[in-house]
Structures are given as C-alpha cells and as structure tokens.
Amino acid sequence: MKKKLTVFLMFAWLVSFSGLFAQGNYTLVIHGGAGNVDRERVPEDREEAFNAKLNEALDAGEAILEAGGSSLEAVEAAVRIMEDSPKFNAGKGAVFTHEGGNELDASIMCGQQMTAGAIAGVTNIRNPISTARKVMDLSPHVLLTARGAEAFAMEHGADIVDPSYFFDEYRYDQLQEQLRRMDETGYIDSADMMGTVGAVALDKNGNLAAATSTGGMTAKRYNRVGDSPIIGAGTYAENSSCAVSSTGHGEYFIKYAVAYDVSAQMRYKGVELEEATNSIIHGTLRDLGVNGGLIAVDKDGNVSMPFNTSGMFRGYTRSDGERVVRIFGDD
Amino acid sequence: MKKKLTVFLMFAWLVSFSGLFAQGNYTLVIHGGAGNVDRERVPEDREEAFNAKLNEALDAGEAILEAGGSSLEAVEAAVRIMEDSPKFNAGKGAVFTHEGGNELDASIMCGQQMTAGAIAGVTNIRNPISTARKVMDLSPHVLLTARGAEAFAMEHGADIVDPSYFFDEYRYDQLQEQLRRMDETGYIDSADMMGTVGAVALDKNGNLAAATSTGGMTAKRYNRVGDSPIIGAGTYAENSSCAVSSTGHGEYFIKYAVAYDVSAQMRYKGVELEEATNSIIHGTLRDLGVNGGLIAVDKDGNVSMPFNTSGMFRGYTRSDGERVVRIFGDD
After folding, report:
1. Do the domain assignments include residue A6?
2. Domain, as residue range, for A74
3. DSSP A184-197
4. For B106-152, what is each residue's pLDDT tens digit?
5. Considering only residues 67 to 96 of chain A, which have any Cβ-Cβ distance to chain B shorter than 8 Å?
6. Is B188:B171 a contact under the CB 8 Å cutoff?
7. B55, B57, B63, B68 alpha-carbon torsion, rounded to 10°
8. A 180-199 → B contacts, CB under 8 A
9. If both were cysteines, with which of A68, A253, A319, B45 could A227 make a disulfide (CB 3.0 to 4.6 Å apart)?
10. In this complex, which of A146, A151, A152 lies closest to B146 when CB atoms are compared?
C-alpha cells in the first residue's frame, strides 16, 4: 500500500513539473514598440507586413505554450523573431548610434524563479535576448555589458555576426535625419526613439516571464543605456502579480521604475493590472509629456497594452483561441 | 500698494528658493558598505580610522546642509570623501576585476526634480559620483557606460586619473584570495563583495537625494554591472516618500528593485520607512539568504539603516545635533 502511494506521489510530482500535463490557460503578449505610428506614415502594404511579422512572433511563442512549454521559452522565441526582422528596433533592425554603429540591449526575467539576465551595449550578437537568457541561466550575474558581454556570449555559443549585419539603409537614413535635427535644435528628438520589442507570457503552469530587446535611441552617444536591459524598468516578472515589458523614452522608464511599479501597485495597493498600467502610462508619464507604452499579463491571464503615443505594434494570443494584432491607436 | 505687494511676493519667492533662508531640519545618512564586519576582523586602531573617515564624510555633507545647501550637493560631497579613501570599495579603494583591473559604477538621484544620472564600468574617473551628477545635469541620458562615459567625463572636466591610481595592495590580495577560492569552489564568494558607499539626505527645503558609488564585486567578469548604478536598485529618491542607497549582493538588489521598493511600499501601502526597509532587508532578502543593507531617510527626517550582515559602516547626522557613527551589528 505504502509503495503504491509512493509511486502515485512520484507520478503526481512528475505531472506537476511536466509541461505536457499542464492544465492551465496560456497567454502571450508582444510589442514591437510604441511611437509616432499613424496611418499616414504606414501604408497598407507595410501595415500588412508588420501584422504578418507580429503574427509570426505570436506563432513562435504560442507553439511553445500550447505544447506546455514555459513562458520563458515562449517570450524568448517571440522576441527572436522580431530581432531577426529589420522592421523593429532590435537585433537586425537596431537603430544607429551617434557614431554610426549599433549597440544592442536586452533583458529577460523568470517570475517563478525570480531569476533574470541582461546585456547592454553589444555590437555583434545576432539575438541579444538569447544571450540575456544565458546570462540568467549560466552566470552568477544579472547584467553584463559591452565587450565582456560579447566574450561571455561567444564562450556560450551565441550566434556572433559581423557588426555590418546590423547595417540597414532605412535606419541609417534615420540617423542622418536625427543628426541634422540635433544640429538645429541641440537635442535628441524622442519621436524616433521607439521600436523596442518585447514579450510577456503566462504558461499553462501559471508561470510568468518577460523579455525586452532594443537597439536603443537613434543617435545615442557615450554608450548610453536605456531601460530595456534594466530589470525593474524595461522588464519585470513576478509570479504573484504580473509580467511587464516597456517601450518608450527609456530615461523616464528608468526613473519611474515602470516595469517594477506595475507589480508593486498590484501587490501593495491591491489594484488590478489595467489600473496599475494605466496609472503609469496615462497618468504619471502622460502628465510629464513622456512617450511610451507597455505590455503586461497578470497571473490570471489578463492582458494590458496601454500606450500614450499614436500607435504601438502589439498583439496577443490566448489558449481560448482569441488572437489580436494591432498597430494604430484607433484600431 | 500693489507695487509693495509685488515686491513682497518677489521677496517671498526669493526666500523660498534660497537655501540661506531655508527653515526646515536636515538629515544626512551615509554607509561604507555592509558585510562580514566583526570585531575580530577590525582591530581597534582600524575601527578608529574608519570612524574618523565616516565622520569626515558626514562633516563634508553637513557643512552644505547647515548652510542651506541642497541634499544633492550634500550626498555628492559625502560620497566623494569615501571615494577618495582606500578604506571603502569605491573610487580609490575599488576592488579588482577578474582580469586585475578596476571598473567603477555610481549613480545619483534628486527626489525633488526626479532627475538621475549614473555611470557604469569606468576605469579612469577619480570620483564617479561627480560624473554621475554631470550625466544628470548636462546630458539627456540617465546611464552612460564604459568608454562612452569616460569620454563624456573628460569633455565635462572630470578629474581623470591613470588606472594605476586605483591599485591597492590590500584589494589586490583580496582578488588573489578570491580567485584561489573560485578555483576550489567554482563560484564567487559573496563574503567579499561588500564595501559600496552611499549617502542619502533631506535638506532644509525638504528635498531628498540619494547617491551610491562602488567598485563592484571582487573578481567580477564580463563587464558585470551590479545594482549601484541602477536607479531603482542601488539608488532612489522621491520627495514624497524617501531616499535610499543600497549595499550588498547586487544581483538580488536588482531583481527585487530594492531602492525603489522602499519608496513604493511607503506610497502604495502607506507604511512607515522603518517597516518598509525591514521588510526587505530582514524579510525578503534574509529569507533568500542574501546579504546586504541599506540606508534611508524619509521626508520627515526619519532614518533607517538596516543590514542583515555582521556589520555595516554607517552613520548619520542631524540638525538637532544628534550624530551617530557605527560599524558592528552589536554597536
């Protein structure tokens, strides 16, 4: 009798740890950046191409979640798709620095284990999000930077590319335009600083994860680092509350610890996800005139995708079959 | 009559903006790191030298606060004194990286203006806290890193030193010892990772500020960045709640957004400063076996200096004449 109980308990234990037998619902939310995105600037054929790429990212993550995989795997997979597209300001499509190079940042967090990894200022890693994941899994550190992060990536088999891989005509023109405006006005215009990508997910086991990847701000200088690789600013995940990925004027997202703040409001004030995200994006930040948005999912699978710009590339998919992909504010 | 009123209003306005006529109380709190600090490891003559240096830092900041200067000026001045001393793991006394170099991080935040500046991974700046201040005051960015931060510092007249300035026999021996232990155990021992310095202050005008500076973790690799230059993790200041500077196992202070969390607890849960800081240091972090501490001051001048290690170099001084300087846990 005792043996049977032991076998049963071992079986139950296996089931609880195995994604294959996971029974809960799943949700995946992604963004490709908030910013000056209105219908005049995005012709219909480009709109379709954006929608197709967002759907491809959702497909990649959903396949993992549907099979009982972890939210961590799902957000990494979704972000990789967007990193490989020149359409978004991350990976392949990263914007140019003041000096005409590309410096990429990314971070990832697991809300179940409260582990996190991030890299900043790398120039030759094709998928920064996957190296951030390796920092989380294989190093005692959370944030590695610059040449050190690249050395770590190389030692752990990352896909290393020549920096010329990140050259993109459109982005280069953006830099020239930004430099011209800076000459005129003396400061960086925040209109072009969007395009960061991110994903948050709840898996069938009830675990939350978040991931963010970016090329930063066009014409950034002095090895500037924004909010995307900062746990608590660009990315946060905590199983009892929510997972968040931000996009916008990074300096303000750092100063207001935006991603962490959503979780803190839920846990300390007891508010719902939507109230927490709105109070930041449509409250604090809007009042300051700060542009941006975020995506978030809570432990019950509720989705929030607020932004105070004219548009945000965004979408979500759920185990109940609901899928939404949107670009403009009036969608 | 109207003219007299105008003159009076202008005078009142001037008074309200002038530190000289500021009427409130002030408080300055500093730390020189939490860690394995017990009486056996710190002989009496070294204890006296530490106390003298902490008092010197308090003197520098207090002179500014007493004269009606800003909390921002005060925390920068106090941190500079500790950066210039080889006693602490910041500036002159920065620990060594795995490769035998020194990489310094610092951040500063103004709770009145909600502005912040930070630098990470610099190798030739004598007082990183003052460059962090310049990033805050003179750049559109919050966080600059590595060679870019150094170029920015140089352009803005920072005190640049040869990297050999940071060589210190004692710190170098610490690195050798750490490397030996890493060979044996395969991981970095957290016992030696302490020594970060920081300061928080409330000035007579009721403005809060926080500053943190560090050499990071002995034998850190891959351009690792810890919590000290991360706004929300190592440093936070917000006028309606508190100012915080952290010290400890940085990776965890990032993942739990420690400095921001104190402010969030006060604002969202309505708890007092001491309850907020204790719930992190003696709650969340202690439960995880994570070593560290923090200093904090709230908008009413209340001071909190919790740590879960055997000691923390710490002290505070107040406009009512109270001054405390302590090292050990049983002080």
Report:
1. no
2. 25-328
3. HHSS--GGG----E
4. 999 999 999 999 999 999 999 999 999 999 999 999 999 999 999 99
5. none
6. no
7. -120
8. 187-188
9. A253
10. A146
What CATH number corresponds to the domain at position A203? 3.60.20.30
Range in A115-119, A191-195, A318-322, B271-275 the model is least confident about? A191-195
CB of A211 closer than 8 Å to CB of A79 = yes
**Residue A105 in contact with partner chain B when CB distance is under 8 A:** no
Q: Which residues of A touch B268 (CB under 8 A)?
A: 264-265, 268-269
Tell me the nearest-neighbour CA distance from A237 into chain B, angstroms. Answer: 9
DSSP class of residue A73? H
pLDDT at position B10 is 67
Choose the mutation target among A188, A189, A224, A240 for the interface with B, i.e. most B CBs under 10 Å.
Answer: A224
B182: left (phi over 0), alpha (psi -120 to 50) or beta: alpha
Tens digit of each residue's pLDDT (9 = 90 or more) over B251-292: 999 999 999 999 999 999 999 999 999 999 999 999 999 999
Q: Answer yes or no: do B143 and A254 touch at CB < 8 A.
A: yes
Question: Model's pTM, two decimal places?
Answer: 0.93
DSSP A168-229: -HHHHHHHHHHHHHHHHHSS--GGG----EEEEEE-TTS-EEEEEEE--STT--TTEE-STT
From B260's Cα to the closest Cα of chain A, the distance in A is 7
In a domain, A49, yes or no: yes
Active-site choice (B27, B196, B212, B317): B196
In chain A, how many domains are there? Answer: 1
In a domain, A100, yes or no: yes
How many other CB atoms are found less than 10 A from the CB of residue B156?
A: 15
Residue A132 lies in a domain: yes
